[in-house]
Amino acid sequence: MASGLPAPRTAGGDGEGSYSRQSRLWSGMGSMLTPSLKEAILNHLSPPAEGSGAIHYADFGCSVGANTLRFAQFVADTLKARPDVIDRDIVCHFVDLPSNDFNTLFKQLPPFVGEGDGSGEERTWFADGVPGSQYRRMFPRSSLHVAITALTLHYLSETPKSILDKSSPAYNKGKIGPNGSSPAAAEAYAEASRQGLRKFFECRAEEIASGGVLCFYTPGRRDRAHPEHQLFEEIIHFVPPFEKAWKELVNEGVLTEESLDAFNIPICHPSIEELREAIEHPPSAFRIEKLDFIDKFALTPDNAEETVFKDAQAYGQFMVNMFNSGMGPMVGDYLGPELAPALVNRFRQICEKDYPVKKAAGFPMYMSMCVAALIRK
């Protein structure tokens, strides 16, 4: 088994368990952000003076898949709707960790206008990839005009050390994250989240020009006081059955108790109050145009009734694919090629057993979300 904490890494490529395939589940979330993003670009963005160069857009934590490209095209189309931008060059910067599968993303790019065969969509914007952490500076000062980040702000810049310290009240024994953990462990996660959020907005304040736009949406929670309550109660989420699978294999002697205690995912859903505090943290470089909490946002995968949930096996495979796209590489790196498949297989079995209960409930798929549109002062 590999030592140390897992590094956040999504599954690359375009196979069944890749993030590119599973990102279709999140495609509907774009509807939360696009109205505010359009409003901010059309009515609040102050583009650079004519003749001073291109308009620069950045997608932080871009990953891969159609959702990333849809946002880029949406931003370009919205910018081109402004008379003072219509003839300007637009550069889309796709930003993510070096482990992101940029090769797959680049292969998914439509051909540049005039370079295709006329049979499909063409793009009018230039593109590049920028590897690095969103919790660090990535661009020159005042060089960006529009930026977004989608489903990334719940990832921590680092996992708190106290949750691995057996002598600490925050020691996260028997859990893989803050959900359902002790108040001390959950608060350690929440404090790491607050520090990372402040750093994110500090870095973007340096990079985004005055009058620029920053929009985001992220899984969130309503209650600041209880970070151990991370998930909407009805959500179909892989963490609870995954923890159950790990504990079953510990009890059977397949995995060690120490392996579970030392594995902690670097994720914490922030509350809307914590987001506001991070945005307004001195020197408070952004003006908040929108910051809303959506208590119950429904997720609907493509062709759910016909394919995903038609029987227990299909549902189990769907859950495995969702797990593999987001956490599979982390678990594989941590447990290694011999033990990781056993854990995933037990996880599948548990999900298949849950199928009758989920079916009777109508397969509820909900998340609590925070969405925002900010303007650089």
UniProtKB/TrEMBL annotation:
Keywords annotated in UniProt: Magnesium, Metal-binding
Record bears the keyword Metal-binding: yes
Keyword Metal-binding found: yes
Region: Disordered, residue numbers: 1-22
Cross-referenced SUPFAM superfamilies: S-adenosyl-L-methionine-dependent methyltransferases (SSF53335)
PANTHER family for the chain: S-ADENOSYL-L-METHIONINE:CARBOXYL METHYLTRANSFERASE FAMILY PROTEIN (PTHR31009)
Annotated protein name in UniProt: Uncharacterized protein
Provenance organism: Ceratodon purpureus
Organism phylogeny: Eukaryota, Viridiplantae, Streptophyta, Embryophyta, Bryophyta
